[in-house]
Each structure stands twice: as structure tokens, then as C-alpha cells.
Amino acid sequence: MNGMQFYETTGAAGVALAGVAAVAVYLCVKNGVYLGWTGWAFRRHIAGLLRDPSRLDAEAGARSGNPLIRIFSETVRAACQGHEDLRAELAFQFHKHFRVVNRGMTLLRLISVISPLLGLLGTVLGISRVFRVVAGQSMVNPAILAQGIWEALTTTIMGLVITVPVLCLYYFFRMQINGFQVELMEYASRFSAPPARRRGA
After folding, report:
1. What stretches of 52-98 show up as alpha helix (H) in DSSP?
2. What is the domain count for the chain?
3. Which pTM was predicted?
4. Which of 33, 48, 64, 166 is the most buried (most CB within 10 A)?
């Protein structure tokens, strides 16, 4: 099926859904790879610090390419400088360094909401087109009517096929991010504690 046939079958809503699907695939792959790499590198960094806490260098960590290491290092540095509300500092740093990921997550959520609506729009437009054609005929062929309605329903199917996996992946990524926040809180409070308490942990 070439582009023209696809457009004739699904209409403008189908073409828009194909574009939305391409963006969704890109965002899912990008977020999946980025969050996977970020979590792996952060856990490796923390494992090294747990083996040898003297390697903790908040200044160097704040310049790291990994946003979780940056958040961790800047939160520990702020705690060591007398910032008492560790949770507020962590939330601020998370918002600051995870802005790109959060924007991507918002787009994924938007795609999961828009896709079925675009599919429904395509179906309504397709059915109205079918009835307009049928209204101009004196003898209605049921096969033509069924074919037209089937084509109109294609966009609803497309919308649901996009929405279901995107919504599942959105919540999976959101769970990963929430897990990162819990880990960051745990390790930041541990490494910002006085050395004697840290050894006892």
C-alpha cells in the first residue's frame, strides 16, 4: 500500500496517526535506552562509593554526564553545606536535571490521550463520507456500505493500537523514575550523614 492508497483508506486522521505512532516509537526507544543507561551507570557509581566512601567527590559528580549522579552529588553537597531539607533539595535537583526526560514523558502521555481521539475523529469523518456517498445512490449496495464502514473503523483500531502500548510504557518509565527518586533519597541521606553514622549504616 503506497501513501496515496493509505490516505484514501484512512483519510487525514490516519496520516496524523501514522505520524503520532512514529513519534511514540522514537520517544519510547529513546526513554527506554536513556533510563536504562542512566540507572545502570548510577548504580555502578553508588556500588563503588559503598565499597570505598572516601571516593565521594561531590564537586566532580556535579559535572558528571549522568543526571542521577549529578542530582546525587549536588544534593549531598547541599546537605554538607547545611541545607536541612534534603527532600526539597532532591526534588529541586530532580526537576532541574530530569527536565528533558519529563518533557518526553509528558509527550508520551499526550500521545496516549490523543491517539484514540484522532482514531475516533477519523471514524466519524469516514462514516459521514460513506453516508454522503450512499445518500447519492438510488440503490444501496450493502457490500459498498460495509466496505466504507470497515475503512472508517480502521482509524479507531489504529488509535487503540498506538494507545495501549504507549500507555503501558509510559507507566513503566514512570515507575523507573519513581524508583530513581527513592534510591536517590536513600543514598543522598546516607552519604550526607556524618562519617561515624555512615560507617554504622
Report:
1. 58-61, 67-80, 86-97
2. 1
3. 0.81
4. 166
